[in-house]
Design goal:
2 strands; mainly alpha; single chain; two-stranded antiparallel ribbon
C-alpha cells in the first residue's frame, strides 16, 4: 500500500522538477552543501600541505610533546562532526521544503 502512494506519472514528476519550489529547494541545498564541501576539502588537505611545506611550523610544540600537526589532525575529527551537525540542522529545512513539494504533487495527482 505504501508503495502505491509514491507512484505517479512522468508528467507529474516533470511538473514537480520544473516547479519554482523544487528549484528553490535545490538552490537552498546548494548554498549549504557546496561551501561546506569546499571548506572541508580545503581543511582536510591543509594538514598534508602544511606538513610538507611548513614542517618546522607544524612541529611547534604546544603541550609537552604534542605539536601543531597532532592538534590539527585531531581537529579534523571535530570539524567533521561539526559539519555533520550543521548539515543535520540544515536538512530539517530541506525536509520541510520537500514535504511541501510532495504535498503539492499529491494535489496534482488527485486532480487528474
Amino acid at each position: 500500500m505504501a508503495e502505491e502512494r509514491y507512484q505517479t506519472s512522468q508528467a507529474i514528476w516533470d511538473k514537480m522538477a520544473n516547479s519554482q519550489e523544487f528549484k528553490d529547494l535545490m538552490a537552498t541545498k546548494r548554498t549549504f552543501i557546496v561551501p561546506a564541501f569546499i571548506f572541508f576539502v580545503l581543511y582536510y588537505f591543509a594538514l598534508p600541505v602544511l606538513d610538507g611545506y611548513a614542517p618546522q611550523f607544524m612541529a611547534t610544540k604546544v603541550i609537552g610533546n604534542v605539536n601543531l600537526a597532532y592538534l590539527f589532525a585531531l581537529s579534523q575529527f571535530f570539524m567533521a562532526w561539526i559539519i555533520a551537525g550543521l548539515y543535520v540542522k540544515a536538512a530539517n529545512n530541506f525536509d520541510r521544503l520537500a514535504k511541501d513539494i510532495v504535498a503539492k504533487a499529491e494535489t496534482l495527482k488527485g486532480g487528474k
